[in-house]
Amino acid sequence: MRTPQVVVVMGVAGTGKTTIGPLLAARLGVPYAEGDDFHPQANIDKMSAGIPLEDADRWPWLDAIGTWAHSRAGLGGVVSSSALKRSYRDRLRAEAPGIVFVHLTGSRELIEGRMSQRQGHFMPTALLDSQFATLQPLEADEAGVAVDVGGGPEEITERAVQALEALPVASQ
Q: Looking at residue 4, what is its pLDDT?
């Protein structure tokens, strides 16, 4: 039996991290933490105003997520985080070396359509281009999988579970 993983559900805004994260956690039988809850208010205010975050804004947020992930080592958990750059993922791995990433992917058109449907979220559609410009997909040496967000939440979650199960045990 595998040791429970700590999984970071990553991707640009609008890919469904907040929807898929809890579903994936339920399927894996582990707790879920919403990555947006780790943002300081200054970050939320900045994004709400349509201003992209800079790396200096992200470091405390990533450190807080990394601390949570570290606390779940050996116990398992799922947390959402855009984790768009390799350097962000490296920072998370520095806190929690065994984490695995599920990169939710999809076309800009699909994601923009989904973003325009959601209500009450601080991230405006106007920042989607900056998200795609910042995105550095998972590299071959990073423990993780890419999962297409086409289809419904249950279908996407099932693809994520199957992709995680197919990872070699050494990737954990």
A: 80
Q: What is the pLDDT of residue 126?
A: 58
Kindly tell me if the per-residue pLDDT of 87 is higher than 70.
Answer: yes
20-53 CB burial, b ≥16 within 10 A, e <16:
bbbbbbeebebebbebbebbeeebeebbeeeeeb
Report the distance separating Cα 22 and Cα 108, nearest Å.
23
- Give pLDDT, residue 14: 84
**3-state class (DSSP) for residue 103:** strand
Residue 69 · residue 39 · CB < 8 Å: no
* Res. 13 pLDDT band, cuts 50 70 90: confident
Is residue 141 scored above 80 in pLDDT?
yes
Largest CA distance in the chain: 47
| Nearest-angstrom CA–CA distance, 58 and 56 | 5
Could you count the other beta carbons within 10 Å of the beta carbon of residue 165? 9
Residues paired with 32 in a beta bridge: 78
**What are 105's strand-pairing partners?**
148
